[in-house]
Every structure is written in C-alpha cells, then in structure tokens.
Amino acid sequence: MNIKATFFIAALLLFGFISAFSLAYDDLPSIIKTELPGKIVVVFNGQLDLINPQAGTQQILSTNQTLTSINNPVWSPTTSYIVFEALHWTNSDTSFPSSDIFRLSSDGSDFVQLTQNMGMNNYPLWTPDGQKIIFKSKQDGISNIFSIDFDGTNLTKLTDFESADWDFWDLNLSPDGKQIVFVSDREYRVPQPDGSFFSKSTRVSIGMVDNGKIGRIEDITSGSDCGVGDFYRAPMWSPDGNYLALSFGCSQNTGEIYLFDSAEMKEDSSIEAAQKLMLAENKNQVINGFSWSPDGANIVFVNQTLLDDYSQNYDNLMVVSMKQILELEPILATSLTLNENPEFRYSSPSWK
Questions:
Q1: Above 80 in pLDDT, residue 101?
Q2: pLDDT grade for 287, boundaries at 50, 70 and 90
Q3: Burial call 108-131: b when 16+ CB within 10 Å, e when fewer
Q4: 351 compared with 227, residue with greater pLDDT
Q5: How far is it, in rounded angstroms, from Cα 158 to Cα 37?
Q6: In terms of CB atoms within 10 Å, which end of the chain has fewer, N or C?
Q7: Confidence of residue 251 (pLDDT cuts 50, 70, 90)
Q8: Is the pLDDT confidence value at 284 over 80?
C-alpha cells in the first residue's frame, strides 16, 4: 500500500472517530447560556464533564476507561486542578475494586493517582492554600481522616478514631481551614441479623483543626425526630464562611436545603433554626448534590425529578441566587440544563 493510500485510510478513520465523537455529543442536554461566572465540573454518566455557563457548552474532562463510579470532584482554590474519587481495579487478581483519590488539570492533562493503598478512600478536599488534599480513608472497617501533599507524598493521619461501630461521610473544610464538618451515624447505627448495619438517623459534627490535627469534635445537630430514614447530607460552607448549607430529608421529602448562619449557629444549631429552602417543587423532586459559586452569590444544585411510579427519573442542573434567599424573596431556581432523558445523570457539581 502506497503512502497516499495509507494517508487516505488514516484520514477516513480519523474522520469517522471525530464524527462518532461529535454524534455522541449531539444528544447531550442543552446548556443554557447565562452570565454566570466560572466553570462547573460535574459527574455526568459516570465521567467528569466541564460545563461553561457563559459559552453554553459541556465537554468531557476525564477519559480514563479503567475508572468507574467517579464521584465528589472538587476544584483547587488556588489552581486549575481538580481532585476526585473513583473505583478501579488495582490488578487482575483482586475481586473487588479499590477506591482512590485522583488529580487532574481542568484541561484533562496531568492525570495522577494520589492514594495507592488498598481500601476505600473518599471525599477529597483541598486545604485553603491548595497544597494538600484531605480525605476519608477506611481501613479494616475503621474510618479516619488523612491528608496528602499535592504530589501524593507525605500521607498523614489527622484523626485517631478506633471504633468500627459508626461511620462518617460528606466532608467539607471551612474556607479558613480551621474546621472540618461531616455527617455521621454515631449512636444511630443499628446492627442487622446478617451482620450489616442500618443507619436510622444521622448527625452533623464539626472537628477543630489545630496544628495539622483534628482535635475536639462538636455535634452541631442531633438526630432529627421526623422518623426513621431522615438524613443530613452534604454540609458545605459558603466561600466567605458566613453560612453553612446542608441537605436534609425525611423519608421521601428530600427536596430541601437548609441554610445556617455561622454566627447564629453557635447559639442554636437545630434544624428548626435554619432557613429552609424549598428548592424542589414536590415530593417527586430531590436534591442530588449542590455547590456554591466562587463569589458565593449563587448555589447550583442537581434537581432529580422522579416519575409518579418511580420507574424513571431525569436530572437537571439548576441555579438559585443568594440574593433571593437572604431577602426572603420567593425562590425561583433557573435551569442551567434542559434534560428530559432518564439515561443522562448528573451529580456532584463543583463550581469555580
């Protein structure tokens, strides 16, 4: 085969690849152009995608096919890097995947696996200076909080929890790096006959960070009294640290975000004292992850709408302004995506 024929075939293959790539994106949900600043990284159908609100575009960010169940992406506060967790098989001899923390640049380059140990490593966070990543690691049934440097070195244990009778999740670090908040089922975990556990309720706790260690831990909520199946989820500080938002749900009623004033929370941290934001319109709509905008002026969240028979659901990204919230105006969330395809799934947005 001569050089011209080889080049022609290669060009056809390349054209076919580009066409297939473009076709896959022709079916994406429409992104509504807005004046909202920054970019939003989000999990879309198990991969990392980058949404540019001003350009009205959505593009693939992660292409590593060995990773599954990508979750909890978080922007660095100082650079264009993103950390996230994902399941992957470390070798062909293992029956179960390992969950590790990964890092990559927002242009898809410089992909690095930060944690290397077998076990479950989840909920990565950046320190305010962008030099370290804090995360939860579960080894031998016991969860603790660790930190690791930007390059994956200097693994440091920050807590000394010794009990496997309770667990925690949904970590978030305050903007000044002095407090870490998380959700746990401490004192609410019920053992089952098969050896598993059922969490009948949860609480939100804050750990004080001092000299690189997490010391005193204070509960800012107790288990709520709305019945079995009520949960706090995803506590998250505003960029200025003045507010703490979290999702809360009783049974199927999970379309609510509650907003705590950080100063007033010291006096009364009960869920009744928080400002309740009904972001979902009815019981068939639930909140599946949210994030503050970089300037704290808006909140983006995943609105998941379920059909009446719960046979299918579809996700959309929506935005609500803090101005509406603080001035007690009617909360009118605006759509960032237009999706009516139940096969398209969004979760875990992070805005920068």
A1: yes
A2: confident
A3: beeeeebbeeeebbbbbbbbeeee
A4: 351
A5: 35
A6: N
A7: low
A8: no
Count of CA atoms in the C-beta half-sphere (13 A) of 234? 23
Give the chain's mean pLDDT. Answer: 79
Reported as half-sphere exposure (CB side, CA atoms, 13 A), residue 72 has a value of 24
* Mean of pLDDT values over 101-119: 89
Which residue, among 163, 221, 245, has the nearest Cα to 197 in the 3D structure?
Answer: 163
- Number of C-beta neighbours around residue 140 at 10 A: 6
Does residue 29 contact residue 341 with C-beta atoms inside 8 Å? yes
- At 11 the pLDDT is 36
Q: Which two tokens stand for residue 264?
A: 């007033």
Q: How far apart are alpha carbons 349 and 265 in whole angstroms?
A: 26
Per-residue tokens: 296: 């704290």
**Spatial separation of the C-alpha atoms in residues 133 and 136, rounded to whole Å:** 10
* Structure token digits, residue 209: 């960070």
More confident residue, 252 or 153: 153
Half-sphere exposure of 334 (CA within 13 A, CB side): 13
Question: Quick one: pLDDT band at residue 28, thresholds 50, 70, 90?
Answer: confident
CB neighbour list of residue 165: distance below 8 Å, 6 or more residues apart: 189
Dihedral over Cα of 276, 226, 249, 175: its sign: positive
CA distance 267 to 276: 18
DSSP 13-31: HHHHHHHHHHHHHHTSPEE
d(C-alpha 330, C-alpha 182), whole Å: 30
Determine whether 246 is exposed, middle or buried from the number of CB atoms within 10 Å of its CB (0-12, 13-18, 19+).
buried
Q: Pick the closest to residue 320 from 306, 347, 302, 304 (CA basis).
A: 302
Residue 163 scores a pLDDT above 50? yes
Asked if residues 220 and 276 have their Cβ atoms less than 8 Å apart, the reply is: no
